[in-house]
Design brief:
198 residues, two-stranded parallel ribbon, elongated
């Protein structure tokens, strides 16, 4: 494996963080930093809601710019948050479950309808007249990635199909990962504090 970083970028990382750059994997973040650490750091920064708002106009016209911090503690914290996001998005790590699928039936996706929480009833994503995923909050249902409403699109792509056990479980895992993503995004903003990064 070889990191796809320019020599100038690697020199910049070493000078800014005062750490040696290793060519593969993760460093110890005390004396070394590796390409996976840089990826995790970037993944965290690019998932910051404040970053996305602050640089929204620029992001529409160009590739995102990676702002480097000279704070080694902040770099380490963002690496950790980015690593968790990466594992969640690859479904290598499960987040705490939030959704259930409580009603037995034919498991066929016939309709896709969201009903917001009301009193004691949690948010529900209906897939037919009798079955639904329960425990989906509105901000999760409305979450968009790449312009798509994730939880709705996953179901729309399978409309008319009967969902198997693995697919039912997968949808719940995706919902949990996305919910945890929202929590981590808030933690990223709290960790960074003020912009621009220092």
């Amino acid at each position: 494996k070889e990191a796809n970083f320019t020599a100038a970028f690697v020199i910049g990382i070493q000078k800014t963080l005062k750490r040696s750059f290793i060519p593969e994997g993760r460093g110890d973040l005390q004396t070394t930093v590796g390409p996976e650490d840089v990826f995790h750091y970037a993944y965290a920064v690019f998932h910051s809601p404040t970053y996305r708002r602050r640089y929204a106009d620029f992001l529409k016209r160009d590739f995102p710019r990676l702002l480097l911090t000279s704070s080694q503690a902040l770099f380490r914290q963002l690496c950790g948050l980015g690593a968790e996001l990466t594992a969640l998005h690859l479904l290598e790590r499960d987040a705490p479950a939030i959704a259930t699928y409580p009603i037995p039936g034919n498991d066929r996706i016939e309709i896709i309808r969201y009903v917001e929480p009301n009193g004691d009833a949690p948010g529900r994503v209906w897939i037919n007249a009798t079955q639904y995923f329960q425990g989906i909050p509105p901000d999760l249902w409305n979450l968009r990635v790449g312009g798509y409403q994730v939880l709705a699109k996953w179901l729309k792509d399978r409309k008319g199909r009967v969902l198997g056990f693995d697919e039912l479980l997968h949808y719940q895992r995706v919902a949990a990962a996305l919910y945890r993503t929202l929590e981590i995004q808030q933690a990223i903003d709290e960790t960074i504090g003020e912009w621009p990064l220092r």
